[in-house]
Amino acid sequence: MTRLWDKGAPLDERVLRYTAGDDHALDNRLVAYDVRASIAHAEMLNARGLLSADDLVAIRDGLNAIAAEHAQGQWQVLLEHEDGQTALESLLTARIGEAGKRVHLGRSRNDQVLTALRLYLRDAIDELEARTTAAAEALDDLAKREGDLALPGYTHMQQAMPSSVALWAGGFATELRDDAAGLAQVKRRVQKSPLGSAAGYGSPNLPIDREETRKRLEFAVIHEPVTAVQLSRGKAEAQLLFEIALVMQDVGRLASDLMLFYTQEFSFVELPDAFTTGSSIMPQKRNPDVFELIRGRTATAQACLLEVMGIVAKLPSGYQRDLQLIKVPLFRGIDVCLDTLAILPAALAGVRFRRDRIHLDPSIHAAAEANELVVKEGIPFREAYRRVGEKLKKK
């Protein structure tokens, strides 16, 4: 297969396998976005007199058909293609002839793949935001069901202050909504159109209209100057993975609480059988595997962020092949978070607090008692604190 960069020299297949890596497989999730961007680019070329109307129709129809076939599983990007961009152009040219080769005028694989990636990230952010909000709503539902139940509030793993299911669930729900807002903020970087920046230095002597493709693809602004585009690589991705890490951190802490409450020593909660598994050797046990894996996958999210930042750190300006490696941790981080948020609401729907097992130590009201003394007697809080402390010592 002829590749977009092929200059006629033979290529060792080991080089192809090493340089392509998993890129061909990863690009399967970008095919629909690449097609959309390619059609917008072809329409701009036609508007600028660089592509005939007949060629535009052939390109648009051909790409739409190829995208539909990909969505139906009739073809996949394979190693022999190297990447999704080569696959699309090769399939298009085989289908419509020379017109398929004209769509690449005024762009490079660099701005082509980055445009598709940003279009994909817009949708991924929307889905992450919606699922994070859904997890918060599942906690709202839990608070409505059992919110009036008193719970001990802990500091330093000791009963410290009176709390409730409503306060406990509400705290996590609030933070998840804050995480959803953080995810939405990533769009500031994702909404910059890189299309037309080509390999990072534009397309000299071609009347390319970057504003036309920006509008067609509904980006907020053009990413300019063209030299800024490659410098931006990894920044939106790292920002998204940072926000994902915060989501996973919050749901990981939620899972940690529930697993603690599920121990025999606490027995504050019952977890649904459908979301726990049995032991292979101990008949009496039900294991909170879902919540354990939610907690464990916080490490995956953090590792994905560090990998992206490590790839980009200290790169010189312009495009470098290292940037291709961002896709693996980026997609993995997105998938881990989406999968976690997909299962969490259903798991929370089956959580039940056990009123008969929750007991508050009488000393948990000590701070409230000290505050009451301050109000009643007008004494300094430190004096009230000392008196309550001495009273508790005598018991």
TrEMBL record:
Descriptive protein name: Argininosuccinate lyase
Organism expressing this protein natively: Povalibacter uvarum
Database matches in NCBIfam families: argH
Keywords, sorted A to Z: Amino-acid biosynthesis, Arginine biosynthesis, Lyase
Source species taxonomy: Bacteria, Pseudomonadati, Pseudomonadota, Gammaproteobacteria, Steroidobacterales
Gene Ontology, cellular component aspect: cytosol
Pathway noted in the entry: Amino-acid biosynthesis; L-arginine biosynthesis; L-arginine from L-ornithine and carbamoyl phosphate: step 3/3
Family: In the N-terminal section; belongs to the lyase 1 family. Argininosuccinate lyase subfamily.
One MF term in the entry's GO annotations: argininosuccinate lyase activity
